[in-house]
């Protein structure tokens, strides 16, 4: 690893400056521990050529802000707090790997540690940092139908992460949401976010994604808006809303047309009755007069009729 190489080089520079530092310690500057799991803080000492035969006098691990040593070896005995041990199983003084193992990593284990080694020919001290992470749980989404609000919750993560909302087309809706991060007793965070669905602009599904502090996506959950019946119902309602008045108007028009037709028929019948009467009468009168034997000779327009 390149960083290890750089560390080695830096330590050599350090060694050449400090006259008593005959023991070179190799540590990783930054370590990541997973919550609830074991964390390893590496520390291996390499004595300089001159200090090669020097026996180990003591080793101790300390944490910034903690008075007592977390783990120590001195005069043949190893002492430590329950959660700490040498990482090497059955470690002894001939083993130069004095790495520290933290059994059940918690949020409060985060911080600055020092690895201290002293041999008969010199000593060394090195700092190393532990960062703790906890992966957030898969989010759970609930709908509050009263307020038309989607609530997304993702628990037990560290450090503080972020919940973001996306619709089925991948458009982000986080700006319309409200997020809250609650620190619980264990030091972990419970995240919750509210997204209010607006009337008319509702998508068929919403995805809530949980991102860690460095912006990496950890988990996601999708909520399908559980109203297909209601939605279809709305559509049916919508169409009936349009169709119903149309039907009413339509039947009114048809009815009106029928009424008009009826009235027209009636009127034309009446008109015919009224207009035909005099015609019939007029038609009949001359015939009648022609038929009358008295006027026959005078009126030439009268057709010949059998005498
Ligand atoms: C030190 O010991 C630990 C635990 O056995 C091991 O994981 C690590 O690789 C060792 N480091 C070196 C540099 O040997
Ligand atoms: C964040 O998530 C990314 C992708 O999953 C991961 O590589 C990274 O280590 C995570 N960072 C932290 C601080 O958890």
Key attributes of the depicted protein:
307 residues, alpha+beta, Immunoglobulin-like, six-stranded mixed sheet, four-stranded antiparallel sheet, 2 helices, 18 strands, 26% helix, 36% strand, rod-shaped, disordered C terminus, binds 2-acetamido-2-deoxy-beta-D-glucopyranose
Outline of this structure?
The protein is of the alpha+beta class. Helix content is 26%, strand content 36%.
Write down how many β-strands occur, each being a DSSP E stretch of 2 or more residues.
Answer: 18
Q: Taking strands numbered 1, 2, ... along the chain, how are they ordered across the largest sheet?
A: 2-11-10-5-6-7
The end-to-end span amounts to 145 Å
Q: Averaged pLDDT, please?
A: 80
CATH class placement of the domain at 13-133: Mainly Beta
The portion of residues assigned to helices is 25-40%
Q: Identify the overall geometry.
A: rod-shaped
- Beta-strand portion reads 35-45%
Task: State the CATH superfamily name of the domain at 13-133.
Answer: Immunoglobulins
The poorly predicted ranges are 9-19, 228-240, 274-307
Q: Per CATH, which architecture of the domain at 13-133?
A: Sandwich
**Structural class from helices and strands?**
alpha+beta
What is the CATH T-level topology of the domain at 13-133? Immunoglobulin-like
